[in-house]
Design brief:
Elements (H helix, E strand, L loop, with lengths): L6 E4 L7 H11 L5 E5 L5 H7 L4 E5 L4 H11 L2
Parallel strand pairs: 1-2, 2-3
């Protein structure tokens, strides 16, 4: 965990939802920035996760430049 600088988290995954993974990460690694990405529109569930702080959202598909921009926001 000392080597992880950022989590890029998709909201739709097999086994656990992105929301479940987000909450698990917040329990043990609360300081770690999380960038949520999704092909679906940002909704109330995502907005609630973002309120925990140190998290951002990017809509898929996205460009490398847009990804860079959103990552920089998390580290300012």
């Amino acid at each position: 965990k000392e080597l992880i600088d950022l989590i890029l988290l998709d909201m739709v995954m097999p086994g656990m939802t992105g929301e479940e993974v987000f909450k698990e990460v917040r329990l043990s690694l609360s300081y770690l920035p999380i960038l949520i990405h999704s092909g679906y529109h940002r909704d109330a569930n995502i907005d609630a996760l973002l309120k925990s702080g140190n998290a951002g959202f990017i809509q898929k598909p996205y460009t490398y430049e847009k990804l860079q921009e959103e990552i920089k926001k998390l580290f300012l």
